[in-house]
Task: structure prediction
Amino acid sequence: MEDDQNTAHPLLRGGRKEKSFSHGFTKAQIQSLTAICEALIPSMPITALHVSSQRDPPPSPSLVSFYKASGSDYQVPDQVAELMVKRGLPDAVTLVSWVLWALSTRLGTLLLCGSTCLSLNFPFIRSFSEMPVEKREKVLMAWSRERSFFSALRLSFALFKIFCVYVFYSWTDVNSKNPSWEAIDYSPGPLKPPKNPPPKSFKDSIISTTTLTKESLVSTIKTKGITVTEDPSADLLTLECDAVVVGSGPGGSVAAAKLAKSGYQVLVLEKGLYFTPQDYSLLEGPSMDQMYESGGILSTTDAKVLITAGSTVGGGSAINWSACIKTPDKVLKQWSEDFSLSLFGSHNYRAAMEAVCKRLGVTEKCEKENFQNEVFRSGCERLGLKVEFVPRNSPEGHYCGQCGYGCRTGEKQGTQCTWLVDAAEAGALIFTGVKAKKFVMRENDGLERKESGKPWSRERDQRCVGVMAVTGCKVNQKGKKSSLRLMIKAKLSVSACGSLLTPPLLISSGLRNPNIGRNLRLHPVSMAWGYFPEQDCGESLRGKCYQGGIITSIHKLVLENQDHDSGVIIETPFLGPASFSAIFPWLSGSEMKEAMRRYARTVHIFVLVRDTGSGEVMKERKITYNLHRTDREKFKKGLRTALRILVAAGAVEVGTHRSDGQRIKTKGMRDEDFEEFLDGIEVFGGAYSGEEKWNLYTSAHQMGSCRMGADEEKSAVDERGESWEAEGLFVCDGSLMPTALGVNPMITVQSIAHCISDNMVEFLRDGEGGVSEAAMKHASEMVRKEI
Result:
């Protein structure tokens, strides 16, 4: 099995060779894109940046090569084009395609670049690629600040910049190396053998549909004891089980484990792939591509918020930064009282949190903190700010700093190492590479349920009888790729796709509750940074920003006129070089290279806000979000505190991620200068907002888009997790949260799932016979009719 996995997932190991591309851009458009990439990352002599002095040793060959390198090298433009088409939103791809076409013409360049493209020589107007790189760079600077009718150019700039620098710093050659990494002092790994390999029984429970033909898939399913029937004319397989769980993340894995351990046949559908710890390469590009939703390049429709979410077996828990914080008491009180959800005031919920923490092996302290957390803790202590250890689902001595790409040691206890293992040992099967398309409904005739007086006896208009899905890529015996439809008939169905995908799936299944897809919370994050040259720091602040435990310390900000919980927390992130470059402000090509040269010793501190603002997600990848004015005020106060922490810890320069590169050097800085700088801290909308300056926010926590409640008018599912509209359809992920949480949601999601799963078990036990034969026959007829 392990050899098969290694063969199946070569991208996770890196090693990108020269290749042909299928992005669809014309030669003229690629010429324009190449000119843009070269302007964003220009080649320059190292002396131009004054990086050496008489007392410094001469620059290393790698540093010289780094400054000479250009964004037009290494097939970067073609890779950027391909990544844009593969991962970009369709509207964004249309926009950049038009811009690239316009720039390939002289009149289009005049329209978009103004007088900068004019020349004294015939034909007097130059296309963008004909302009000197210095003038192209000035055009991009102007675009980044554009506020006029052409504000779409600012969005175009943001897209070009993010994709270009991301590709430049993440691509790898056949030896899994990037030429810039040595110059910026970055080295992924090391690749040590895992300490805790997964049990063989778990790997045997994984059915990787993308590596099997239809014939071998059917044979494999039958050997597992699952009833399966074939319909060759429709390229359809029909499977039968007690419960089907769509999604293998924190919510779905707990549900699968509790249902399977209660004696029910459970099938888990995961559209991502399964990787053992030994599969993890710790390479940023391929790891993000294979383990994150949309390859880690997902944003709101206006590019205001960059969103990261897991898309692999284990979901977000596989790439979580280990933080495991219980649901705050204030939140429990709010959900219990304001939303009339007695679950969150119950002993059962607190017992569930204890059970979850025990199963994940959560520890309360960290034996050794990394460079970033040492800086953070030092700054907090010097300012007299309370700083606490962050509980983690790993041993106290766990020092892996790249768990965002999967935990190579196997010490981090994600759900693929815990609850899914429990589910597999109880007989559950996990299908990978399977994408759910819709839950299959039929009219509820009211005869399939006994009127028991229990909560679920409430009559619903529909009955869910299973899910329709497709395999990601099936290879038949002739070597051709095709999709294969799967109809999974089940007595109980669970949507555990996460806050971004559960609403679109429910809507595509015909559900009409207006709360589905609304009330999306993102825990928006904004960052401050500080530069700590090694020669200016003592022995206590050694190391690199990407090494060691990612989040081990936390400061909970207390605001004036508020209680101890302001809804703002401050912690440290993990940023690989590509992610670092994508969110760091671009002021010029030289400024960007200088920022990347300092990458390893640049400490980031992030401010996370328990958001009042909200968004919507009705269709996949169509995410809108509005930042509330009160959240902006919290960001201002949080960023000011973060900057104070960095200065107190000894940073020689600090700044924010605001588009104008807001920063200040601290050497010789007077207190009044610093206070004036802090007074200028403001937060703005995204690149498409039309404001003078703009911010790029990030989000790693998505919640609330299918929230539970006691009232059908205000919620998408009832307090037991069951759909108001469809009997036998439960939701079991972060989308259930009534509001934003304010801390990492990993424990909360699993604790809610732990409680809701008891309701699912009770549903199956009390619903003798579950779905009738007539209902199953009706479902099959519906599927055939649709096909």
The chain has three domains: 17-170, 200-274+414-513+725-786, 371-394+521-699. The first strand starts at residue 206 and ends at 208. Residues 1-11, 447-452 have pLDDT under 50 and may be disordered.
